[in-house]
Specification:
globular; alpha+beta; 45% helix; 28% strand; YaeB-like fold; 3 helices; 5 strands; five-stranded mixed beta sheet
Length: 101
């Protein structure tokens, strides 16, 4: 099984997702449960053999993506590690966001 790492941007994204959900639905519990489910999906991706997700060379040569609910998890394989790069709401202009970052 690969080791799972979250880059700082992905950690920030999870915090913002949690804050957004808590604000919109009025429940910290629901927000925490949802972000935990995203983390569980990241763990599953790290545990699967081979390389998963859609390659995203238009964003970065080594980047993969995997949709989870309304969000897209962007990650890369580095040696025996899976690094979660960022997690973005799927309806946003993803290419523009990557150009900004």
């Amino acid at each position: 099984m690969r080791k799972l790492y979250y880059l700082n941007q992905a950690k920030d994204d999870l915090v913002h997702i949690k804050q957004y959900i808590a604000r919109e639905c009025g429940s910290q519990k629901v927000a925490l449960e949802y972000t935990n489910k995203i983390r569980q999906q990241c763990c599953k991706l790290a545990g699967l053999p081979g390389e998963m997700g859609r390659l995203r060379p238009e964003l970065r040569e080594d980047l993969h993506s995997f949709s989870y609910g309304n969000y897209v998890i962007f990650f890369r394989y580095v040696g025996n590690n899976l690094e979660v790069v960022t997690i973005i709401e799927g309806h946003r202009d993803i290419e523009a966001l990557f150009k900004e970052r």
